[in-house]
Specification:
Length: about 280
């Protein structure tokens, strides 16, 4: 028995080393995939974008027209890929018990091609990091243990499409100017509906603006499994926009609070973000 125990201990140590090495290798592969996605999305930036002309808004509903006039200064290059850095809170719970973590994140938003959101969050000794995109959700505990890992299922793509159409509206407004696959319809004097048809999917987002065109909130029906049944279904999602600042001719919200079940008693703003910077990255061959 005394000879056997060291053997078992050695085998156990080897197995643990191989397991840790495998997890570290998987984490490195995730980092590489993130890097490639960032580069691919930045490459979608128009190299010689046109400039904003209010004549582009002819025929739009009044609320949509005021929105664009508020958000884009005439003559601004119409960049559609944004690089955002943000901090804030990310909720892991519900409206009864939010379980917020302090968050730092970077996002490349490149509609209609997609997005990638790279996040690090912490609370006390808890550390969560990873990325979310139209192709995957991958988050890790303490950079070693995978706690969420979903691939590019149709449900994932449809849910992500709703997210980045809504975010495109207020962070990359040039991407939702009238054009192929993009339509605007009248709701009220201070609200309009954006509908985007791209990549075989359709998403409508309702925008509410102030009298001067400043966006106040967005709301839409999102394909989501954020419910007690963990079953994908259409359910209300939305958020509030504030603290607008100028970024190279675009006036964009720097404080966003958004979450599931928007407009109901179960609304939970799990995403509370303050923007530090928005850049319009250029791709160099």
């Amino acid at each position: 028995m005394t000879d056997f125990m060291p053997f078992v201990a050695s085998i156990t140590a080897v197995v643990l080393i191989l397991l840790i090495a495998g997890l570290l290798g998987l984490r490195l592969l995730d980092y590489q995939a993130d890097k490639q996605m960032v580069q691919r999305l930045i490459a979608r930036q128009p190299q010689q974008p046109g400039q904003f002309d209010p004549a582009m808004l002819n025929g739009l509903p009044e609320a949509a027209r005021r929105f664009f006039l508020f958000c884009i200064t005439p003559g601004t290059p119409l960049y559609t890929v944004a690089d955002l850095s943000m901090s804030g809170r990310f909720g892991m719970g519900n409206h009864h018990k939010p379980d917020y973590l302090a968050m730092q994140a970077r996002q490349i938003l490149a509609p209609p091609d997609g997005f990638i959101w790279q996040m690090q969050a912490r609370r006390s000794l808890l550390r969560v990091s990873g990325s979310d995109s139209a192709s995957w959700t991958r988050f890790w505990l303490h950079e070693l243990l995978p706690v969420a890992r979903n691939g590019a299922s149709l449900d994932q793509r449809r849910s992500a499409f709703g997210r980045y159409v809504a975010e495109a509206l207020f962070w990359t407004p040039a991407a939702v100017l009238p054009g192929p696959g993009i339509t605007w319809s009248h709701l009220t004097d201070n609200s309009a509906r954006l509908t985007v048809n791209q990549q075989g999917m359709s998403q409508s987002v309702d925008l509410t603006v102030a009298d001067n065109g400043q966006p106040l909130l967005v709301s839409f029906m999102r394909w989501s499994n954020a419910n007690p049944q963990k079953r994908y279904t259409l359910q209300p999602f939305g958020g509030y926009l504030s603290d607008f600042r100028d970024f190279a001719g675009f006036k964009l919200p720097c404080h966003v609070e958004a979450g599931n079940h928007f407009g109901t008693a179960d609304y939970f703003a799990f995403f509370v973000a303050d923007i530090q910077q928005i850049r319009w990255p250029q791709h160099h061959n």
